[in-house]
């Protein structure tokens, strides 16, 4: 019996070793998954370089933290997290920068250029632009006072862009809640992800054109959105008239506009959510309403959910292994 047991154990151990070897081989050679240590040997200073340049940019202009975080979001919702948002128009490529969600509002491209240039000097042809976006988003969040998380790495860069995808896949400020829920669901993200990731609006600014209808004509009947605190609405009208001033900027969180915290949710509960897509989280769905209320009273819970949802979002359809390429310049493909 003892001999049989020993043979059984040896066979089991051997099977485990073989299985582990095969799994590891798959991980190494197919590159079919992302992991935080991806550049530990090929470019050990990668994270340090990204962080130092992001820190410099955010110190110079605090709003840049929100801009870099938003770039990662707008990248992942179109074709997956593949740096397609960074491509300029050229040849057959029509840049996503021209899409409605990005035109006159997406920014931070020069910061990404600076990071890429530094990384090419340190370790040429190694770190993808898509991974730079993911790291910059995490560092921006931390620099603004938000949570940190380990960023899974190993993405590769796309060979094209999709202006159609950018126009249709990215949730818009005036979308209905069912439409926003559907756009998240199509990317494998649930209601917790939706409400937690919306919390990125705790930093950054929005243009008058993104919320004007709430002030004057919410449903096409010439009346304002009465879910918006009318004292706050009157303040907004002073710089966001019925016509003109489209590009005038307003903080998404007027209480602490450059600090990553849960005031975004506190504002929504008080009727002070700037965008329609903010306020409907409270007024149009019982599950999202409950999450808004929980985050409004529990900053730690918001931070925990936000960090987990950012990792989940960063895993949307990445290019790995031999797919795509490592761009030398983030604005254009290599060939």
Index terms:
mainly alpha; peroxidase; 14 helices; 2 domains; disordered N terminus; 335 residues; pyrrolidone carboxylic acid; single chain; 2% strand; two-stranded antiparallel sheet; iron; metal ion binding; Secretory_peroxidase; Peroxidase, domain 1
- Main β-sheet description: 2 strands, antiparallel
CATH class of the largest domain: Mainly Alpha
Q: What average pLDDT do the residues reach? A: 91
Instruction: Write down the CATH topology of the largest domain.
Output: Peroxidase, domain 2
Poorly predicted tracts of residues: 1-31
Corresponding CATH superfamily of the largest domain: Peroxidase, domain 2
- In total, the number of domains comes to 2
- What characteristic shape results from the CA principal axes? globular
Strand content is: under 5%
Provide the succession of SSEs.
HHHHHHHHEHHEHHHH
CATH architecture of the largest domain: Orthogonal Bundle
Radius of gyration: 22 Å
Strand order of the largest sheet: 1-2
Main structural class = mainly alpha
Pfam families: peroxidase
Organism: Dioscorea cayennensis subsp. rotundata (White Guinea yam)
InterPro entries: Haem_peroxidase, Haem_peroxidase_sf, Peroxidase_pln, Peroxidases_AS, Peroxidases_heam-ligand_BS, Secretory_peroxidase
Cofactor: Ca(2+); heme b
């Amino acid at each position: 019996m003892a001999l049989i047991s020993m043979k059984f154990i040896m066979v089991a151990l051997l099977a485990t070793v073989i299985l582990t070897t095969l799994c590891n081989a798959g991980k190494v050679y197919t590159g079919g998954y992302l992991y935080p240590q991806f550049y530990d040997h090929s470019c050990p200073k990668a994270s340090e370089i990204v962080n130092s340049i992001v820190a410099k940019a955010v110190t110079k202009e605090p709003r840049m933290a929100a801009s870099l975080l938003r770039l990662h979001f707008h990248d992942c919702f179109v074709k997956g997290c593949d740096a397609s948002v960074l491509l300029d128009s050229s040849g057959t490529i029509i840049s996503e920068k021209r899409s409605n969600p990005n035109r006159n509002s997406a920014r931070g491209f020069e910061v990404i250029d600076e990071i890429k240039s530094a990384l090419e000097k340190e370790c040429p042809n190694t770190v993808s632009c898509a991974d730079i976006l993911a790291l910059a988003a995490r560092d921006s969040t931390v620099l603004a006072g938000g949570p940190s998380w380990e960023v899974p790495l190993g993405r590769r860069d796309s060979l094209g862009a999709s202006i159609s995808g950018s126009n249709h896949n990215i949730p818009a400020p005036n979308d209905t809640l069912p439409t926003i829920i559907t756009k998240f669901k199509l990317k494998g993200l649930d209601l917790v992800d939706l409400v937690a990731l919306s919390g990125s609006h705790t930093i950054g600014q929005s243009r008058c054109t993104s919320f004007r209808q709430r002030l004057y004509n919410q449903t096409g009947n010439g009346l304002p959105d009465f879910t918006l605190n009318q004292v706050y609405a009157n303040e907004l009208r002073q710089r966001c008239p019925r016509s003109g001033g489209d590009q005038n900027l307003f903080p998404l969180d007027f209480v602490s506009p450059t600090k990553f915290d849960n005031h975004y949710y506190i504002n929504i509960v008080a009727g002070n959510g700037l965008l329609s897509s903010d306020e409907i989280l409270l007024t149009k769905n019982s599950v999202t309403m409950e999450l808004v209320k929980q985050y409004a009273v529990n900053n730690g819970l918001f931070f925990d959910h936000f960090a987990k949802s950012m990792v989940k979002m960063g895993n949307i359809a990445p290019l790995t292994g031999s797919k795509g390429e490592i761009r030398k310049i983030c604005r254009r493909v290599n060939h």
